[in-house]
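Entry 14. Two folds queued back to back today. First construct below, sequence then structure tokens.
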Amino acid sequence: MHIIDRRVVIASLLASSAIVSPAIAQTATTAVPTPDAAAPQAGEYEGDIVVTAQKRDQNIQNVPISIQAIGTKRLDDLNISNFNQYTQLLPSVSFQTTQPGSTVVYMRGVASGGDGNHSGPLPSVGTYLDEQPVTTIGGTLDVHIYDIARIESLAGPQGTLYGASSEAGTIRIITNKPDTSGFYGRVDGEVNSVKSGGIGSKIEGMLNMPLSQSAALRVVGFYQRDAGYIDNVAGCRSYLPEPTPTSCTSANGGIVVDNAAFVKKNYNDTETYGGRAALKVDLDSNWTVTPTVLYQEQRNHGTYGYDPKVGDLQVQHFFPEFRRDRFIQGALTIEGKVGNWDVTYAGAYLDRKTYTSSDYTDYAEAYDSAYSSVGGLAGYFYYQDNAGRTIDPRQKIIGTDHFKKTSQELRVASPVEDRFRIVAGAFYQRQTNAIFQDYQIANLGTAVSVNGSPGTLWLTKQERVDKDYAMFGEASFDILPNLTATAGGRAYIYDNSLIGFYGFGRNPAVDPDDGRPFTATPFNAAGSSQTGVAGCYLANGQTLRQAYLNGGDTSALLPAAVSGSPCTNLATYTTTGLIPKRTQGQGATYRFNLTFKPSDKVLAYATFSRGFRPGGINRRGDVAPYDADFLTNYELGLKTTLFDRLRFNASIYQQAWDKFQFSFLGENSFTVIQNGPNARIRGAEADANFSTGGLSVTAAAAYTDAKTRNDLCAKPVCAVGETPLADKGTRLPITPRFKASGTARYSVPVGTAKAYIQGLVAHQSSASADIRTVQAASFGRLKAYTTANASIGAELSGYTLELFVQNLWDERAQLSRFQQCGTCSQRTYIVSSTPRTIGLRAGAKF
């Protein structure tokens, strides 16, 4: 379907939500409760939240793990619609991001940095949409938040019930389900203005439609436009023999370029649109079937990192920049009973495609400087057109990732009221990624390009497959009415593989003095004799380079294993053909818990748990696979409810992270993953909620002390006399030592309306942007920041109107820092929070 058609469908859904309202009002004879009727109102106690963190419905105060839940009303009150907004309320969560939809999340300091690459490690934090995992290799799925029942944040290893990629924790997004009690809906709209930026807007709608006494349909639609605020300003780049890289005149016969065609204010706007539908059918009094489908598309333009060397919220970029992220998920949940046991099946299929165009000018700037002693790029490389003339060396990157994920889980649970009770099940998951990265130089000669792709300097074309199998179970026994012991385990097998091509091309011409193909020089634009087609396999099992050096036949390259690539250099050779490189592993994770509940208002627990993350294959064929890493957690926690108005929960923990996976840009900006040293993480978390009269206050905070226990070196084992990349005792990156947030909302009747005022404050201390000492100094630290939001509004007869301000004092909260390549230390980009935004929201429920 064309993009315009999709927008028409979404707009029609939202319009129908608004149009249906008066018709229902005229014909209804009795009031139909809305899904928020039972939700706590402002000023009411919000502690009795039901969560499903342990695969059962439980009051959050009875769950013996560190868990935070943000309910429907609080999500609406705080105008939360995306990942960055709700994670500021979760103090144990930190993340790296380059732009919306391209984010890697961490919990409790379990971060080595550099994750999120399509050829990198699996995430250490799992993300679930209802019962189904939506964790993908290339970053967290940024599901639009609307008509959501709650968001659950489960800190610490969840390796027993949630398995791989929940090593450090799990985030669960739970949607509101179809309801047979009556027809109702809502529609919400917003317009906002960003300081020194553009105008943004949002419209969202929901309909709940009973189809019969046993079936209901719930549909959601949304469109959001986030205004840009970063300017692409005029600038130049020059290449030797010109005197400076920012020279705008060609004085010495070098190449000079400008970005006049791409100069634009408010360069970085984003559009997000899509919809969700769920059908709930009660087959009988015991069995319910719920199929769901989610579609979302996000289109980013420009870049979300600004260059402080150019100016505040400014960059100088020279090529088109955009990212399109489209995903669709179909899911099926079947719930029922066999006898008095609960049975649940959860299956899903996720299809996610991303398409990006990125400016890579900084690479040419860095390498021109690095080779200045030999004339820069023009003197050392072969960036030439078909006539042999030196050309503009700048690159842009065209990339696509196509993720597919199938998951299946079947589990049973004994009655919750039994003294001895269990949850047990089986899980299977298969996820794939078709990887394409095309580094292009305009007018690059055919002979020095990647074979079959004129104008391509470097190509990555690979297929990745990650498979997981598991059986799991947890058993709880009430030793005394107020003392419960729980033991759980998960046996797992992982099987991950990678096959394809990466690297430069190889000049196919014949050197007259040699007589064999692929012997003419230059071999490619970089003059590389080792990487790319040189490493492709021949029919006899040798690589092209090996045959070239030993005088063998260089003409019999095996066909490409991945369509669209010239040949295959990342594979395992067998006499029957090339097969993917594979790494496999098996083992078990476990959890032991003791819970003491001396009264209905107090719960204390002690937990010993372990989580893991699977190993994988490096895309450099000469780098060994990396192994699984493991996280062991020791935790004490307390949950209290005082005076029926105050909830206070706290925990302290120590974690051992063994041989953690460490991803970094190595030689020639290759992503390399290896197992590093061990790390020790200590911390404390607390959250509180207090309500009285019309006042409701919440607060949450976390302290994290995460350090390496050994030296980190360029190889898994440090060589004698080697200078470490990071010394023993180096703090792990990304996670601040301290993070806290608080909200306050006061409501007061004004005639027949209810008026309110609300505020949110979030603070975090500084953090390193990289674990490696030299690189961390080059990036600079992520600075400490404090931000605030405020709003004032009123509710009347199902209608709401609100005036709000986000980022009240226009703080440049630094979310992440990055450089375009492994040697591009001349420019560090800062991804910051959106500048101060003032807006107006309006909504109606019917």
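Second construct, same run, same settings:
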Amino acid sequence: MKISYSWLKQFIQTDQTPQELSLILTNIGLEVESLETVQAVAGGLEGLVIGHVLSCVQHPNADRLRVTTVDVGGPEILQVVCGAPNVAQGQKVVVATVGTTVYPNEGEPFKINKSKIRGEVSEGMICAEDEIGLGISHDGIMVLPGDAQVGTPAKVYFKLEDDFLYEIGLTPNRADAASHLGVARDLAAYFRTDIRMPDVSGFKADEESLLIDVKVEDTAAAPRYSSVTISGVTVKASPDWLQNKLKVIGIRPINNIVDITNYVLHDLGVPLHAFDADQIKGAKVIVKKCAAGTPFVTLDGVERKLSAEDLMICNAEEPMCIAGVFGGKNSGISDTTTNIFLESAYFNAVSVRKTSKRHGLKTDASFRFERGTDPDMTVVALKRAALLIAELGNGKISSPVSDIYPEPVKPYEVDVNYSNINRLIGAEIPAEEIKAIIIALGIHVAAETADGLSLKVPAFKVDVTRECDIIEEVLRIYGYNNIEIPSKINASLSYSSKPDKEQTQHVIADMLTANGFLEIWCNSLTKGAYSKAPDEAVQILNPLSSDLNVMRQELLMPALESVAYNQNRKTADIKFYEFGKTYHLIAGKYVERPRLLILLSGNNQAEQWNQKPAPVSFYHLKAAVDAVIGRLGIATYQLEEVKDERFAFGLRYFRGDKTLVSFGAATAADKKKADVDKDVYYADFDWALLLDLVRKNKIVNKEVPKYPAVRRDLSMLVDTDVTFDTLKSIAFKTEKKLIRNVQVFDVYIGDKLPAGKKSYALNFTLQDEEQTLTDKQIDAVMQKIMYNLAQTVNAEIRK
């Protein structure tokens, strides 16, 4: 939310600098994310001065150019070549001198240099209003009144002052601070001073010539509806002061009527809407809900189908505006509008939020209505806007205020106890100080005892409904920095079950990160089209879009979107991991499953001068999977080829009927859905099961073996369907005590081998913890292994 420093000072008198005020705002809960110097006009008219055209003659070499001499109050008279058709001797004009940077409405800024134009020297530029951001006209140069003082800086002449813009990170519960008045209220409470409210005491109906009959059929959705009419209005450009106010906070001026409604919105926090009164058929305004499917064309020219729950502002025949959200195309203010119906209302926040979300419309008005506006401010804002429209649009207020408010919103009644305030805040704040802060915040003290206060909280503080909310308000204004950290800290020892879930996750995350993996966090919402089990998908009842309409059932597809995002930006070498949850609807119950995903794509390492890049493979993924399993201390499990539609091929580690991890290559169909065109390998761990297995691990400390290990190599021919894991299992079954490790160091399949055969070269590590192994013992073990390999898988040992 953007807040202007000078605008704030209309409400509250302060000598604090913008920088000091920035710190105060942050300390009282309105975090200032940025503070910058801004100018209502780009460039601040720096370098532009008021000049007097002393002479103006035809350019000797160009029919459409004039050669002028201009006095700008300096020691020398400037010669300026000008192409404007209205330039003439004796005019007071705005001149951009040599060295000045000019900021036009359209196009890039440019610097004025001394130059020759068709052979004539030009020492500046006589400016049109659109060339310096003061208007939109380009019919000719700006001609100023004759009393303009030569040499006066344009910035001074046009009374253009620098302002300071606060970007406040407004939290959703602080709807009361969504305006300059709201921010000023907090500052007034901090400084213990008064707010200077706009004076609307001069409001009165000049006549009663334009009466519109107003009827509210749905008072639950529109508890208060105020309106007034203004006739004889001239729609035109707003005066400079109003345009500058809006420009500073980033709002483009449109015309005096629309600008006034925008100004009051950001001034008082009350959204207004102006209708062309002549377009209100039957001279009736009805606030009601229309039939489902009713077509309605909004201001942006889009035809929308209304829901039966959408509150509409209608005339006698048709809807004119989506209440609190967006106006209609045919009832808004145009250049030909002369009579206005002005609305100021308090709409139900839930109703506006649902309508806004249903139609995908987010406006400044809906932003405030759906968070809660001040029902007590509608008439004040209405009178403020009506007076401005009458003044700036030369109109007359042509009806008394219509204010339909059948059941006034009552203040929240909250009791607070001084001891609770001090207990929660952690400091002893005097009772008088607490009471002073509460009163400064605009909260009424209905009753007081020695123990606490009975309060009536005004309706504009929509988030203050409980004692703890009052305590938060007191702490904000008292100051978080004023609460001292105690020197004594009390703590208690507690038993926690093992393993520590967070610590175990950090261990694995640190290991993966140390090996070049990057952690990703993907959105838990994803496309329903990704679902492989639609019947188990957790549907979002009111999705933001079709791309975010279900909870994810696997971590892969959102991760593949991250792969595509990176590959499209020339970052093709990817090593990702993510700890996350998947969501399922099984037998009518919602189930969350913690998972760990590891994903590889591209090259295994970056290209180097002495090494060519090699693409990642299934075996790089397997090494990462084994590292995770090993780091968790899980040593016993079975494996088999994965038979799952989620993988093109792969393996599965399991114990009994429980799968620890499935890993392999992503399918072509999944890659196509995410627009990935490179090989992707991934592993899907059941993280909850792994934690359960880790819980059962027992740590056993052993001494470093005293006796050396021995290695023996063995080469053999086996059938192509025999896996290394089978050979490894046979070796350990043959000798459980002495064999420490079995590794494969070569595999060969080719035309030099018999059909259906492949060659394996394995190494075996043997070690005895009690003695040095002899050749006789080693040979005996190796003979048993060779025999069992031959008997079990028909291995042919190669000599």
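Quick look at the second one. The chain is about 25% helix and 30% strand. The CA atoms of residues 97 and 124 lie 5 Å apart.
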